[in-house]
Write a structure and sequence with these properties.
This protein is α+β, with helices and mostly antiparallel strands. It contains 15 helices and 15 strands.
Length: 401
Amino acid sequence: MSTDELFKTAPDEVVRYFRAKRSLPSFDWRDVAPQEHAFSWTVAKSMENDILEDIRSAVDDAIINRVPFETFQQQLTPVLQQKGWWGRHVQEDPKDGALKVVQLGSPRRLRTIYWANTRTAHAAGEWERTQRNKRFLPFLRYTLSRAERRRKEHEGWVGIVLPVDDPWWDTHYPPNGWGCQCGVRQISEREARRLGWEDGMEGPQVIMRSWKNKRSGTTELVPLGIDPGWASNPGKHRARNASEFLYGKLAGLTENRRRVAIEDIVGSAPMRAIVEQRLPKGAFLPVAQLGRVLVEAAGSKTSTIRLSSTSAAHILQDDPARQLTVQSFRDAISVIVEPKHAFHSRNSLVLLGIASGQWWRAVIKSTDEGREWWLTSFHRKSASKIDKALTTARRRGTLIE
């Protein structure tokens, strides 16, 4: 699959999927559970955070600007070489403290990093689009890999037609292994029937094989034909995570998964629905997580910020020129997540920051003795008005330093 083909669909979903991940240093790819890759960004042997962020920045640029692998490699190689993350080196394995000779950067590793991250981000973005369109195109058809060397099992799946929500796609939604270039095509019921699908038809029997993870010592069952670590649907994992958060099923969700769930909610259809006033009165969405410093400064019992349909309506009414868009809401929310300044105002916090090159002033209000936080207003502000607000807050002693 060429770079143009890889990124020609669902770019917003692809970018959001990748950017919401939390960086997670690791020594070995087997140290991170397969499902966790949907929420965390990691590169094996990149224990130093600056190296991890250098590679992440390059992949991010490749996704956004459709950078081909050759350019990605040319730009990143000298950066990694200068920092010593290249060739074979001795590193301490944090698992047992043993010194081991490991492969750091190399052209082959860079190709693997580029391929794995762009392909999975694309697949997750496509899954989100698939879910949006399944009312009209309720089936998926497995399509042939474009790789020069094709796996026999993958060739056997070509032409399989199943409903979008069939459990077979939980494990067999491509990519299904290192270098796998299989794909899917979303189709109508009419085309599915023309291709041979019938009511009650089930997916192929999934034959499992044993695979021992030598890092953890555990033995896992992996579908035949799928590489260990690839028997998952990253887009579906993220969607399920967001759904559980949205409907209050928070048990077992880590702080990172809560944060990712909120970013996915804000970036997709529910946010548009609340701004366009298509959600009923009383409906609300979690839209941000307040930073730990501000949670402590406010004496809050929660870090989750909500936006109600009622507050969204009031915010829109305060904009008679009708200049506020869904992106305006997302910009204001990004300021809440990473404000440059904050100060107290009665039972509210005022957050100041820059998004899309513009200063914003967002207000969140505490209710139920700090058990709930709500986004109540936001406005664009000039730099001079921001300076004036900061001067006043300092004089009153309400600025949170």
